[in-house]
Specification:
Chain lengths: ~350, ~350
Amino acid sequence: MTIYNFCAGPAMLPTAVMRKAQQEFCDYQGLGVSVMELSHRSPEYMAVAEKAEQDLRELMAIPDNYAVLFLHGGARGQFSAIPLNLLGQGKALYLESGQWSVAAATEAEKYGDIERVDLRCESRTLDLSRIPADTSEYAYVHYCPNETVDGVAMFDVPEVAAPLVADLSSCILGRDLDVSQFALLYAGAQKNIGPAGLTLVIVRRDLLGNADSRCPAILDYQLAANHDSMYNTPPTFAWYLAGEVFQWLKHQGGVAAMAEVNRRKADKLYGFIDASDFYRNAVAPSHRSEMNVTFQLHDAQLDKRFLAEAEAAGLKALKGHRMVGGMRASIYNAMPEAGVDALVQFMDHFARTYG
Amino acid sequence: MTIYNFCAGPAMLPTAVMRKAQQEFCDYQGLGVSVMELSHRSPEYMAVAEKAEQDLRELMAIPDNYAVLFLHGGARGQFSAIPLNLLGQGKALYLESGQWSVAAATEAEKYGDIERVDLRCESRTLDLSRIPADTSEYAYVHYCPNETVDGVAMFDVPEVAAPLVADLSSCILGRDLDVSQFALLYAGAQKNIGPAGLTLVIVRRDLLGNADSRCPAILDYQLAANHDSMYNTPPTFAWYLAGEVFQWLKHQGGVAAMAEVNRRKADKLYGFIDASDFYRNAVAPSHRSEMNVTFQLHDAQLDKRFLAEAEAAGLKALKGHRMVGGMRASIYNAMPEAGVDALVQFMDHFARTYG
């Protein structure tokens, strides 16, 4: 039976990447040791690290005036690092569209003057007109284009004068974006890049060098940039796996090709849900995530049975986030279209049986 | 040819652990997915996480009044976390015995009043009599029992009244220690535990809850303890591999059994070096590391040839730290005695050829 893993994160990785990593797990390129047993300063590992950065730069068309940092931890670390590096004595604006952007704002409040604008409306849409017309007074504006808990996305890049910071943890490399519109992009790896324990930061170099005097060294972007992300021993195996994912993405045709597949996968699933009386998704169509498709059964008493039968059919981890319940199918880059087809087929069968 | 990897870190992992991890890399316990693709909140992953903690508690006889935290990053993150959690408005004392304890003190100075005592003497020994007799005024005393760069160890636990904090990154689980003598122990994983990107913190619970108001959430021990190290998504694969290493250690007979092998390995190597005119180690015998054996060739012009021939003989990563040069054989728990035998045999052959 083919298993399809819809976990929101740590999420599935491309099957081809996992098989290759397994094959060379104990013997990387004939060296007789694992890539995770190599010194991060060895020429063999440096080549892995540099290729990963180059491939990412190519995939995202990252301009030269941006540093690409491979850091420890997840996005939560960056919730602190961003104000510690960019806030100075100024104030910042946080746009709230879901659990993660709210959490980022709450953490940032430790470090200075944070203003928050809640974009969420009762009709499960986002009202971008609430964004202040003049943002020039802010050190930066922060937002999260894809919120995994409710499956809410903000596809339009907010038009702000202030440096724009975006948490791409759950949507990086899922569709094209113009890096030059942003001051800083960041993403925990465990959804669309690699295993948990690695975070990418892409930051315009002119913003570096202003870290708070009490910024922990491991969160100081300038220090990381000066040392090519090797101020301390990086999470070498996660970095290597991320690099393998980048190579796989290039073989798939890059981000534009993935975006096409992602759009098709999401359309298929939302289309099925909308056409059904048995399932529903309440998010406004223009703000529906292509990465995390949430849905509810018309009768929540069937939830347990749905999950058990899905699991038995090889469709794993469909349970919604514990804060909101219901179901959630996370369909990042690594989820093949066949996985969505299998899910739709199962949902249809389940609805016919219990509807 | 058998390969022996003497890298100081990321270091080799036990061969049996690596083979098992390879075997189940794409299919953990018949689930059809990798352990790194499991939600950290799934029952299957929670069992992995809990077993790792229980096995570590057993191996180190950790009393119940200590929390065991599995955190992101390396020891450098803890250089900041320790003062941010323990310093308060007080002052702390840092004992300096090498590069790492100095770096820890330098980072701590960002956060308050830090006093430093350099224990290093010109004769490459440590003078513990320099430790102030009365330390009761300090919030804590920090030291590093094993310094990897010079291969210098401090085997006696300093007798201090203040809470004692130790960086065990390069010696944890290498010999027995009495956890109750310490307020906090910490260790980056990549030397004696698992892959880079995981750090263990073992901390007396009564010390929690006093973090600085500007402590990043990911460095707040109380938050980590409250959430069983899952306040954010932990580095799940590294945690799993650490757990596999703990199981392997139990099968080897636990820490006492490893300590015996480690003592034997170190004695063999130092014994050979001391008996030779060709090699030398200048560290005072009572402070020689059992984990990182540094040595110099009598003629540094032979260094390159030594490294090239060692590599050709399957003995990898013997180059000393870039700050001090010479050679370094890191012989952590995962290095079998046969690896040390092979190294001694090679060194002997090399000395006879070029001596």
